[in-house]
Model the fold of this input.
Amino acid sequence: MSDSVVTVRPRRIRLVCWASAAAVLLVFSLVATSLTGSVGDGSGTFQRGDQLAMIGLGVFAALGILLFTRPRVVADAKGVRVRNVIGSHELPWEVVRGVRFDRGAPWASLELHDDDLLPMVALQAADKELAVEGVRALRRLHQAHLADLAGDSAAH
Done:
């Protein structure tokens, strides 16, 4: 068996998310600093708490954007671990029928023996060659597992 480990994380979406999170935080901070004086007809005024609340909202919005940097796929000879934006799965190769990356699909998927498809958001079409290399590496690990199974069954 091979002892290689394949780790794939999306590249383009991570760059976009970090830049977007920084921009959102900056915009909310700028809006917070502009919250001064009276409101409308003068019946209320902006307080320091209002400014801090606006910055807090910016922090939460930025953290929400950064959730999209979470996807990762780690695979070895034993199985594959898929972490998407929400949720994670750890699967042995025995339950995987194949690795799919259909034309026009936004990301690759694992085709499971129970006819389910498990999306792998870390392998995104936007990353082009990086995603293709990741899919090829996963397919090599899967094929090595199938070859080991065939060798074990032939030995019995």
Strands lie at 6-8, 38-39, 44-45, 72-75, 79-83, 88-92, 96-100, 107-112, 117-124. Helices lie at 12-34, 48-66, 129-155. The chain has a mean pLDDT of 90. Residues 129-155 form the longest helix (27 residues).
